[in-house]
């Protein structure tokens, strides 16, 4: 299993869902981690962003390009 590293911070659940769909379509290995914590009622999401996407570093450029395209 390749090492997964933080690629970027995601701003909301919609952005995360759209990115995940596109990464699955392109067979890019990834893991999307939400910062939501029910104990603290999502307080970390207000300061850190919605969550992050992790992937092998060799896919960083591709993932950032996909995310940029989704934001247009």
Helix content: 40-55%
> Number of helical segments?
3
Radius of gyration (CA) equals 12 Å
Q: What is the typical, i.e. mean, pLDDT? A: 88
Reading off the top of the CATH hierarchy, the class is best stated as Alpha Beta
User: Which outline best applies?
Assistant: globular
Q: What are the secondary-structure elements, in order, as H or E?
A: EHEHEH
Biggest sheet strand order reads: 1-3-2
Oligomeric status of the shown chains?
single chain
Number of strands: 3
CATH fold-level name: Alpha-Beta Plaits
Estimated structural class = alpha+beta
Low-confidence stretches: none
| Count of the separate structural domains | 1
Report on the biggest sheet.
Answer: 3 strands, antiparallel
In whole angstroms, the N-to-C terminal distance is 33 Å
CATH architecture: 2-Layer Sandwich
Strand content: 15-25%
List the defining traits of the structure above.
alpha+beta; three-stranded antiparallel β-sheet; globular; 3 helices; Alpha-Beta Plaits; 21% strand; 72 residues
Descriptive overview:
- This protein is an alpha+beta fold.
- The chain has a single domain, classed as Alpha-Beta Plaits, CATH 3.30.70.
- The chain is built from three helices and three strands.
- It has helices at 13-25, 43-48, 60-71, and strands spanning 5-10, 31-34, 51-55.
- The protein has a three-stranded antiparallel beta sheet with strand order 1-3-2.
- Helix 1 packs across helix 3.
- The longest helix is centred in the first third of the chain and has 13 residues, at 13-25.
- The mean pLDDT is 88.
């Amino acid at each position: 299993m390749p090492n997964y590293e933080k690629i970027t911070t995601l701003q909301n659940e919609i952005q995360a869902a759209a990115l995940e769909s596109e990464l699955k379509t392109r067979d890019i290995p990834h893991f999307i981690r939400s910062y939501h914590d029910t104990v603290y009622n999502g307080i970390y999401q207000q300061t850190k962003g919605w969550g992050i996407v992790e992937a092998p570093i060799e896919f960083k450029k591709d993932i950032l390009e996909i995310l940029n395209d989704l934001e247009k």
